[in-house]
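Morning F.,

Quick status update on the modeling queue. The single chain you submitted on Monday has been processed. Sequence for confirmation:
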Amino acid sequence: MKAIDEQGCTPATGNKPSSLRNKFIAGTAWTAGARWGLRALGIVNTLIVARLLLPQDFGLIAMAIMVSGLVEVWLDFGVRQALIQNQQADRADYDTAWTLRIMQGLGIALLIISFSPLIAKFFNEQRLPHLLWLVSSGIILAGFSNIGIVNFQKEMDFRREFILEVVSKLASIIVTISLAFWLRNYWALAIGIFTRQAAYFALSYIMHEYRPRLSLERLSSLWSFSQWMLVSSVGTQIASKVDQFIVGKVATAGGLGIYTVALELAQMATNELANPIAKTLLPMMSKVKDDPGKLLYLFLRIIGGVNTLTIPAGIGLALVAKPFILVVLGEKWIDAIPYLQVFALYGLSNLLFTGSNSVLIATGKVRMYSGLLWLEAVMLLTFSLIGYHWAGLLGIAYARIAASLVYQLAVYFCLAGVIRLWFFSILEQLWRPATATAVMASALSAIPFEALGAMPVILFASIATGVFVYSLCLFLLWAFSGRPDGLESMAIYTLGRVASRFKTSGKKSEQGR
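Structure tokens below.
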């Protein structure tokens, strides 16, 4: 890792396409490993803790996180994105960013603590104030984390970011599970969250040699970029949480717990497939931001690859929602089944244009990006209120799909102007996974898996059948299409390399005997 010096954060390097491509692939692999590793740990955590605690406990934590997240975005200056987007950022920029993060953390904590009695009254939940004190402490600690770790993402050194994320998450899970066995209440979840923030803080200084100093020297230059990132951050938070605020107000803590856990499980099947790719995009697109042709090519390959994974994952999860909930969470979570089905469909619609935010931020269209997020926020609020009067809490879940579709349509028109994205270019990327998914869904609907009896067997057989049918159909369509460049060709290439390595390793073993 290159140190951040007084002149610049990184030495100048050539941005050769092959080098960028290799970094992107390696970065995606490490990020995927981190995301999926974290989710695997999260699933283990959920499997154990959900059987020890009640939906009400998860609902209480969801309330505290919603409140802290909403307050946090109003003071989020987007300094991480500013440092990544600015290829010439130096020590003064990093120190100013760190100082702003500290001010942000202290300001958020003060607001949350000051308004905690009113928040408890809003949710009609008197256990919230003490939880909010602990959440505020974690936010302050996060503000003091080493700003130098931004370079892990900026330099696409995702191996070290992988270690940072996984170790801090592992510490949180160990504490959460241990306390869940001991306390059997929501404090196990709350203390587990604080443990992750504390571990992240400590590791940020252990893993990066940069030592920040208090400074506001570059406040004006950072603010010129960050003001619109602040607007977009508020829009993002509202667009992602406004429905949960409504659920928290009109339902019990148990109802909110079911709603949020179902949403989180659905996102495991879709977002966690897309996020590893999306996270590597901003630093890469920032390097080719002046070439619309390269941006368009990269974006099309990304949405093709992401949707090849997320379309079958979303549809598949919706079809196996019942055995999935009963096996993973148990009988007391049975009310989450219809919510999981809706959120699985929302997940794939929400990820249709994965990477669009990176395109807009990298090209300096932060104001446009902010407008899109606020459009989604307003649509979600409107559709949630309509949906609740139409179908209760499940209607609010459907509102996410409706708001997402409006947002994706607006994104398309914006990208058509920025990188000349056209409808048939998108269709070319999506028709194969969409067709293969339709065949998979038909197979899963036609086969009577219920005859197998036990729910774990039904779940395993359904998933195995879906993966087999989808993969077979996808690769047949790819072959009949002339084997175009895409995720299929990358998979064939990767499998070939792995097989070649095993073959070489086998020959060396024979020679050594």
